[in-house]
Amino acid sequence: MLNKFRHFLGVGLLSVCYGCSLAPDYKRPEIQMPSNFKEIAQDWVVAKPADQMKRGSWWKNFSDPILDQLVSKTETNNFQIAAAVARYENASAFLAVNNAGLYPQIAVTGAATENRQSIGRPLRGANQPNIYDNNFFGGLATYEVDLWGRVRSGIDSASALAEASQEDLESVRLMIQADLVSSYIAMRGVESQQDILQQDLSMYQKQADLMQKRYKEGINTGVDFYRVQGLVESGRIREKALQTRRAQLEHVIAVLVGESPSSFSLPRGSVDNLKLAPVAVSIPSTLLERRPDVASAERRVAASNAEIGVARSAFFPVLSLSAFGGYQTANQANILAAPNAFWTIGPLAFLTIFDGGRRSAIVDQAIAKNAENTAVYKNTVLVAIKEVEDVLVQLKNREESLVNVENNLMYAEKTYKISTVRYREGVAGYLEIVDAAIDQSRARTVQIDYQTQLLIDRVLLIKALGGYW
Fold first, then answer.
1. Is 464 exposed, middle or buried (0-12, 13-18, 19+ CB in 10 A)?
2. Phi (first) and psi of residue 312, to 5 degrees
């Protein structure tokens, strides 16, 4: 009766201890979040919190089929995404390795050996042969009883790291998409500038031909001809610079879609064909769920928190249950006969008594790592808020300046028309037309720059918000 009581008591204690975990109770590190972004404009669309919303094909809002095709290529061809996928698969495999600790480990073994023993072997029997066979076949099963949560804490850590790796993959994917879309928009902006420059060069060349004719006829001096010819030459210099810039942006896009820049080319287009769609901006706290880098940093805090439990469990005994058995004989013919069977079964406990402070140092190391990851997480959140605020203030001021940009272009065009009339009527010299033409070209270029940058700013805002439109 006493033995049964001891048995049930032991089983009960094991059951209670099996539910133990030495890891601290995990709670996402607290960080003070503002209620709203400071720099958001009053007329912007504010998104309602929807943490379950998936990262969609936000780039399709620009309504460009070529851009859609390019972004789709990054998913299969971009090598940075491929490397991130491999890292995630590695983390998932590491989780599977840790999950295996929940199950018994079973192995089979066998041997058929011929052996010779030494004549002078101590305690050798007088009738023992010098040479004998030893045939063995059996199996071994072991299972670690996770009394202190070492295995489960390891699984929790590996699971959190796998989730962090998945968020890292999303970060890389979002970065590649944003870089590709930004480069594509910038290239279209350069092409629009090239179109304006070609119009200016055509106008300058016609005027240069006219000034040359008038100069030969003695109607005007060579100053007018040389001045407009200088405009043609400066335009040619800018033409080459724009060609270089477009080629470089095309090379960037080629690498992002996983193709060689030497064999990659895109048809020409214009920034005017890209739609300027609004961006829905949510409250700052949604960055904690929506930004993949923030989510990744938080998961690493959870992983290091679980590692504290793994480190602490080293101070307690490791209890394993094992069973070993099979058949052994010196005769191969009847190895599986019942009399040749053997087995052994029972628990095995192991506890380190002294290790020179090694386990304490490992616990301290795990706690310090958790503190580091917590600090990194909080800093990542602050950086995320900063990036959103930076883009918001940039967008707000650029949109407000757009009225001035449009007015500047309008005045420059009117000035050029008036100067042309004044020159034809003989009221003004040709230098006035030249100055007006330069101002008009500059105003057109500024307008294209603003139009292009407004599109790129929206891409940067989407990236800062975590990929949500």
1. buried
2. -65, -30
Q: What is the pLDDT of residues 315-367, one digit of tens each?
A: 999 999 999 999 888 876 678 788 888 889 989 898 999 989 999 999 999 99
Long-range (24+ apart) CB contacts under 8 A made by 359-365 are 359/311, 359/314, 359/315, 362/311, 362/314, 363/308, 363/311, 363/312, 363/314, 365/311
Containing H/E element for 381? helix 358-424
CATH number at 104-120+129-145+318-350: 2.20.200.10
pLDDT tens digit sequence for 399-444? 889 889 999 999 999 998 998 888 788 787 777 887 888 898 899 9
Q: For 75-88, give the secondary structure using H, E and C.
A: HHHCHHHHHHHHHH
User: Which letter does DSSP use for residue 428 in this model?
Assistant: S
Residues in the chain: 469
CATH code at 20-100+151-184+275-316+362-465: 1.20.1600.10
Please, which residues have CB within 8 angstroms of residue 404's CB and are 6 or more apart in sequence? none
185: tokens are: 């928009």
User: What is the pTM assigned to this prediction?
Assistant: 0.84
134 Cβ partners below 8 Å, 6+ apart? 111, 112, 113, 114, 115, 328, 330
Are 307 and 157 in contact by the 8 Å Cβ rule? The answer is yes
Residue in the structure block whose two tokens are 């739609």: 275
Backbone angles phi, psi at 231, to 5 degrees: -60, -40
Q: Are 459 and 178 in contact (CB under 8 A)?
A: yes
**Do the beta carbons of residue 220 and residue 430 sit within 8 Å?**
yes
Contact assessment for residue 199 and residue 275, using Cβ atoms and an 8 Å cutoff? no
What are the residue boundaries of the structural domains of the chain, listed by start? 20-100+151-184+275-316+362-465, 104-120+129-145+318-350
Residue 18 has pLDDT above 70, yes or no: no
Q: What is the C-alpha separation between 199 and 265, in angstroms, rounded?
A: 24
Return the exposure string of 287-311: e unless at least 16 CB atoms fall within 10 Å of the residue's CB, then b. Answer: bbbbbbbbbbbbbbbbbbbbbbbbb
Of 276, 291, 382, 280, nearest in space to 40 by CA: 280
* Counts for the chain of helices (H) and strands (E), in that order: 9, 4
